[in-house]
Amino acid sequence: MQNTTSAPRIAFESSGAAGPRLLMVMGFGMRGAVWLPQVQELRRDHTLAWFDNRGIGESEPTPPRFGMADLAADALRVADQLGWSDFHLVGVSLGGMVAQELALLAPGRVRSLTLIATHSGGLLGILPTLRGLYHWINAAFGPQLCRVEHLTRLLYPAAFLATVNPEDLRARMALQVGKKPPTRTALLQLVAVIRHDTRARLTAIRPPTLIIKPMSDLLVRPFHSDRLHAAIPGARLLAIDDAGHGLTFHAAAAVNAAIREHVARNEVGES
Asked: Which of these, 100, 108, 193, 201, is most buried using a 10 Å CB contact count?
């Protein structure tokens, strides 16, 4: 994608030869490649696109400051570069906050919206559980050697960690932790999260919306999904038991099935 004076170049990838178009927005400090469990499954019958948020991975560093609306504009530029006049939109965590802004920014282009483990802002939105806050601070800003352990404990429930294939987990953590995001970018993303607030505008979201609620999330407390569900007109809510903030990996089968069903329902115009 070509850079402009006001917007950094956004690195993106796409896969899938046919099927509904699905734009996926990743969360705090993570590269778009963390969507791999969804890409591997959904590209069989969807055309997918994912990208690195500004300042992350291969995308250019950001101008001095940004908010969720700027990140939403970045995502829309990816769709423009792909020639997508409309698309289905999925966002997880911070990516779900970006997706809310994008659905408000360009409602005529978003065929459906899926929000995963995210919130609508305000003071309660930035307060995780105490255990979640401890692991998040160390994962986001602590020494590299500590990041894997804290991120693992933050994202995945103990029951999953007791049963997961160690090689699969190591590969996943290498993908997620790999290269630590620049401290400046992490701080700017944190400020964007703190300033995020769509609560008064949620009733204006028009695309059919699915909210996926991980019941054991340490970072975004589950009641935030209930608030989104209550405020967004016609929204549907899917609660996944024993799922943590990293459910796109450890509960990938349930997440992928839910996305596929929601996209199919709204691709054919069902209510």
From this structure: 100
Sheet with 21-25: list strands edge to edge.
12-15, 47-51, 21-25, 87-92, 110-116, 209-214, 236-240
**How does strand 21-25 pair with strand 12-15?**
unpaired
- Give helix 68-82 / helix 94-105 axis angle, nearest 10°: 70
Structure tokens at 112: 């459906």
What pairs with residue 2 in β-bridges? none
Distance CA 228, CA 238 (A): 12
CATH numbers and ranges of domains, the chain: 20-267 (3.40.50.1820)
Q: Which two tokens stand for residue 106?
A: 């360009």
CB of 38 within 8 A of CB of 58? no
- The residues pairing with 239 across neighbouring beta strands, listed in sequence order, are 213
> Residue 158: which residues within 8 A CB-CB, separation 6 or more?
none
pLDDT tens string 52-106: 999 999 999 877 789 999 999 999 999 999 999 999 999 999 999 999 999 999 9
Amino acid residing at 39: V
Strand partners, 187: none
Predicted TM-score of the model (pTM): 0.92
Distance, in Å, from the CA atom of 53 to the CA atom of 221, rounded to the nearest integer, reads: 24
